[in-house]
Structure formats: structure tokens, C-alpha cells
Automatic annotation (TrEMBL):
Name of this chain's protein: Glycosyltransferase subfamily 4-like N-terminal domain-containing protein
Pfam families in the record: Glyco_transf_4
Residue intervals of the Glycosyltransferase subfamily 4-like N-terminal domain: 120-218
Organism: marine sediment metagenome
Length: 312
């Protein structure tokens, strides 16, 4: 099993855990174990671009568009200007799609999440040397998962999905949409919590699920110069003069449901009942949902929030 088709939703320079997961695996398997891996993905950089043309995309003039760390990456544009009805019409003439027996309402929910990659699907279906031993995709519930199943069914080859469940977002707990996961030969999950949910709530067979925890590359934290940070103090720079000894709750990352940013915002009223002298700092790109919740929380009396994003 040496030839693998990778179908991630996005790829580096998109930076979330799923992208790093696929990138790291691809680089290790090709350099150390002599696997042949072909990567096909969208040109989206941020989550917005998966379903909205105003999102950030990677263009061919970017140095990472065609290649990342000597690995070829095949990026296809997201098709935004096409209706669900048209997509259904296209898919229903593909025998390997019909063999999946997906309900239309399930597919429509997946299409809503994006990215609809009609050009990529058409390319793979027409590809003359379509010869893979395995198809691996991430993340759920996005349309690239459907493409993986279509190609896997066509080739009669095993399909794997690493769904990356985030239970704070209702998108991941829609039992109708989870029906898609039952179509895969194997699911790789990061925690036993995910496996328990899939087995108990979704009635997926335990043998169909493998728990492989995410690793941490500690060398990334050993290579920075500690001396350059020794004279820096976040509290000295950003806290009010008489509040330098206040506690700090810090969030760094993409401010979405999945990373926990909204959960922290919603917990602030309860934290303030216990701890009055505290700052909440958020560093990273914002989302519409985060900004909406932030506007509500800022109305609380004596709440202290520092919010940094690429825009400010």
C-alpha cells in the first residue's frame, strides 16, 4: 500500500491542526518510508473561503501554491456560483456517488459547509492514471470527504477519514450528517471521547475507529531565543497602571468555536463572579461568531478584554 491520495480541505500555508497533521504525515511518509503521496486540495487559506468568494485564497504566484517542502500540491478553486440543485444534478450522474446512497438533505448540509470542488472532482474522474492504494481525507463535515468516497468507491480502494471533532460547534453533532462517516472504511480520531461519541451516539462499529492522539513537536519550542523575550512583559505593556498584578487569561489562535474562543467568552460572566481582578486577552484572527459574542460581553460591567487580530 504505497500510493496514497490525500484529499485535505486545505493545505499549508493554511494553518490549523488538520493542515499540519496532513503536511507532517505526507513529508514523513515520502522522505522516510518511500511512499508515493499525491495531494489534492482547495485553494482556500481561511475558513471563509471554503464557502464564500470574499475569503482569502492562495493564488498561483504564491511560492507555496504548487509545492511545499519539495512536495507537489495540486490546488483547485472553490466553485462558489453554483446552486445546490445544480450540484445534485451533476453528482447524480456519477455511478460511484449514487452507490453511496447519501440522502439529499445530508449532501446539502455538507455543500453548505464547502468547499464545493467541482473542477477537482471532474479532474479525478477523468484522470487516466488514477491508481491509488488508499484515500485519506480530513476534515468533517466538508465536501472533500464526499469526493474521497466517490473516488474510493470508483477504484474499490479503502477510504480513511480523520474527522477532527469539535463538540462545541453543533456542526459536528448533527447525527444526519454523521451518516457520511459510516461510509468510510476507517476513522482515525484523536481522543477516546470522539470514539465514545461515534460508537454510542452514532452507532458506528468500534472496529471501524482507531484512536491515534495528536503529537507535539517539542523541537519547535526549543529553537527560539529566550533572551529576546526576557525584557518583555505583557502585563507591563498592556495592563492599566494600577492593575499590573491582575490575573491574565490568554487565548492564542483562530477565534472560532473549534479552538474554544467562544467558550471562553461565554464563561466570562461566571469567572467574574469568582475573580474580579482579571484580564482576558485574545490574540489571533477573528470570526463573525466571535465578534458577535464579544460585542455582548463588552457590555458587562468592569470586564477587561484585550483583543488583537491581524486587522489591528
Amino acid at each position: 500500500m504505497n500510493n496514497i491520495l490525500y484529499l485535505p480541505t486545505r493545505y499549508f500555508p493554511s494553518i490549523s491542526g488538520a493542515e499540519f497533521y496532513f503536511q507532517r504525515m505526507a513529508e514523513l511518509l515520502t522522505t522516510k518510508y518511500n511512499y508515493g503521496i499525491e495531494i489534492y486540495t482547495s485553494n482556500a487559506i481561511d475558513f471563509k473561503a471554503l464557502r464564500n468568494s470574499s475569503g482569502k485564497i492562495l493564488t498561483p504566484d504564491n511560492k507555496y501554491f504548487y509545492e511545499v517542502n519539495r512536495l507537489k500540491v495540486n490546488r483547485f478553486p472553490v466553485n462558489y456560483n453554483i446552486s445546490n440543485k445544480e450540484i445534485l444534478k451533476i453528482l447524480k450522474v456519477i455511478p460511484s456517488y449514487n452507490a453511496l446512497n447519501l440522502h439529499d438533505d445530508v449532501l446539502e448540509k455538507i455543500i453548505r459547509n464547502g468547499p464545493y470542488l467541482g473542477d477537482l472532482l471532474d479532474y479525478l474522474l477523468k484522470k487516466q492514471d488514477l491508481n491509488y492504494d488508499l484515500i485519506h481525507t480530513t476534515y468533517f463535515p466538508y465536501f472533500n470527504c464526499v469526493i474521497s468516497l466517490i473516488i474510493g468507491t470508483l477504484l474499490k480502494k479503502p477510504t480513511i477519514c480523520t474527522p477532527f471533532f469539535h463538540f462545541s460547534n453543533p456542526r459536528y453533532t448533527d447525527l444526519k450528517v454523521i451518516d457520511l462517516l459510516k461510509k468510510f472504511d476507517l476513522l482515525i480520531v484523536c481522543t477516546n471521547v470522539e470514539k465514545e461519541f461515534l460508537v454510542q451516539k452514532c452507532k458506528i462499529q468500534p472496529g471501524q475507529i482507531k484512536v491515534i492522539p495528536m503529537g507535539v513537536d517539542y523541537t519547535k519550542f526549543q529553537n527560539f531565543n529566550k533572551n529576546t523575550l526576557s525584557n518583555l512583559s505583557f502585563k507591563e505593556k498592556f495592563f492599566n497602571k494600577n492593575e499590573k498584578k491582575y490575573k491574565l487569561i490568554l487565548f492564542c489562535g483562530y477565534k472560532n468555536y473549534e479552538k474554544g474562543a467562544l467558550s471562553i467568552l461565554k464563561s466570562i460572566p461566571y469567572i467574574l463572579k469568582k475573580i474580579k481582578k482579571v484580564y482576558f486577552a485574545f490574540i489571533g484572527p477573528s470570526t463573525v461568531a466571535f465578534n458577535r459574542e464579544l460585542s455582548k460581553i463588552k457590555k458587562l460591567e468592569k470586564v477587561k478584554i484585550i483583543n488583537f487580530s491581524p486587522e489591528n
